[in-house]
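Example record

One chain of 154 residues, shown exactly as stored in the release files.
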Amino acid sequence: MEDSKVAAKIKILSECIKIQKGHVENARKAMLDAQESANEGDDTTEEKLYNSYREEMQNKRDMFARQFDVAMDDLNQLNQIVTSKEYHKAEFGSVVVTDGGTYFISTSLGQVKVEGKTIFAISALAPVFKAFEGKKKGEKFSFRDKTHTIEEIY
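Predicted structure tokens for this chain:
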């Protein structure tokens, strides 16, 4: 693969990892804050054990813990992408340039700005990816009643 394409993919991946690390850290902090709130004023009375506020905070902690787990799974997926691999079809880890936008098949992060360009970081479960999954450069696909052409894959 050309050095310029490898460099571009490294920049895209680096930005996605940076964003995802932020998601991980935010979920971690929220989880810890909820746990701290649940523990505030903790005593051993039975009344305190069944306190609805404490239970609510523990439920929030559990919710943030699940978000943290998902964010970590997504970060691990990003870390598995090999930037030097040559891609010939639209698949996980590829950058797909179409006449309707540029997509990085990785995790669902939405719009990512890299050197002034907008890249759509999408998961392999995204409907738009399903429309062009497995397609190669020059092939067409339809999405939302529009036909698009794949201009490049790397």
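Notes: The chain has two domains: 3-79, 95-153.
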